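Appendix B. One record, verbatim.
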Amino acid sequence: MKITLSARHLHRITAAMFVAVIGTASLAHAATITIVNLDGPGEGFNDGTTVAAVGGNTATTRGGQRLRVFQEAAAIWGAILPSAISIQVEARFDALTPCNSTSGVLGSAGPITASSNFPNAELPDTWYHIALANKMAGADLSGSNDISARFNSSVDNSSCLGATNWYYGLNHAHGTHIDLLAVVLHELGHGLGFSTLANSSTGALFSGQRDIWTHYLLDTDLDLHWDEMDDAQRAASAINTGKLVWDGPAVILHGDEILGPVPFMRVDSPPEIAGEKEFGTASFGPPIDDPPLSGEVWLVDDGADPNADACSDILNGPDVSGKIALIDRGTCTFVEKVQRAQAVGAIGVIIVNNVAGSPPLMGGDDPGLLIPAVSITNDDGFAIRNALGTGIVTATFGLDNTRTAGQNGNDRTMMYAPNPLESGSSVSHFDVSASPDLLMEPFITPNLTSSVDLTQYLFEDIGWFNPRTVSVANLPRYTLRLKSTPNPFFAATTVRFALAKPGLTEIDVFDVNGRLVKHLLRAWQPGGEGAVTWDGTDRAGRRVSPGVYLARVRSGELSENQRVVRMN
């Protein structure tokens, strides 16, 4: 069964700040991806404006360079994904809205049709994007194009994103411009399977039937997958920030290989405002790193109203030197602010948002910037300024090696679920808390390359690869048992488990606050009994404090927990 999808199934990427076949990508033992030009004469891929070669793209017209970028993206995906059936991508450039001087939609893409109950489908009564369905079936099930994609031609105009334009090079050396190759890779990812067909606003399944995406979306509050929920539960889950995760075994297995430790910005003193703060990162300067950077916070003064935005030279440089500069967001660029702080000897920069809401992601580029910079909310900035009026404020930028950025504490990678819902972005992207940044986050970030990072493992979960590095996902949901002995224990305890069916099995120990203490097992296990030993140490090999801990075994979509007590 196949069905044609509406425009609402296009998923888009945003910047924060044809019918002729014209190009194919084909490699041995790989998918062939063909770009189908839907642009009219003189526009989009047919724009004849003469341009200079850039970043390995030697085409001589703007339209030709656009096509060359698409061909490169098609070649990258084609080399990764195995399919004997050609994948047809119809594409065009249009003036997309909204787009202004600071933000805009860069592109959108999605499958044209979906299919279920076809030959070799791994799960029955389940929608698959048509390119994946064709691959599984070994046949062209639709007889038409597979993916529809639109990209914003206005990015090359000053009315859209100001002086920021499309970068048509193939080497990701885009500087302050938008890397078209990264954006096309992202959008093709949506069309190839990285999106749900369910309505994230109402929670309704597409044509009343689950899709393969809903089979792996897990709400950790409900401990239910989307295909186990009703419409109201799915709608609530779509805005359950931090609690919507991907539960596929390949992403679970490989997440720690891709994702790094959690970066943090923390106020250390005074006690009344101390704690970790929500923060935004910068595309320029060094990343937050380990060992951490700590120092006293000092408000800058540039002598011109508003005095603390560092849009002119900082007058209190001797006071700021050796400290973390506190700077208000203002009319000049983030780069200019940090340049002035660095020039007077600041060791880091905190930029305070001048409007309510989340801290901004700070764009720009200057290879000469050598100090880290973060942005914080207006409320947190107000609290710091008030505290500076009566005493000293200290802060730290660093990495928490006990946590993995973009995961929710049990090795499940978080999906994007902001509240309120963001139509076209929510649910069908990785969460923005991931670090390093992932290709399939909802916002384009400056440091993306041609890597498809965790996306390739998510594609393994939904069925693109066979054989897999982990189990096929269509095993029935099954039961398991868990028991630790001795319990309580002094030196070590044996965690015994029993599986009714084979599957990827994980055994982890958590503290009472839900933080991961140690991985004990992550491997494919046959059905039956098994055991692992916990010696009472954490991931760094340090002896944990006496107290109550939680041992958890998880296999497939089920888990079992047991309290474990370590004695003195």
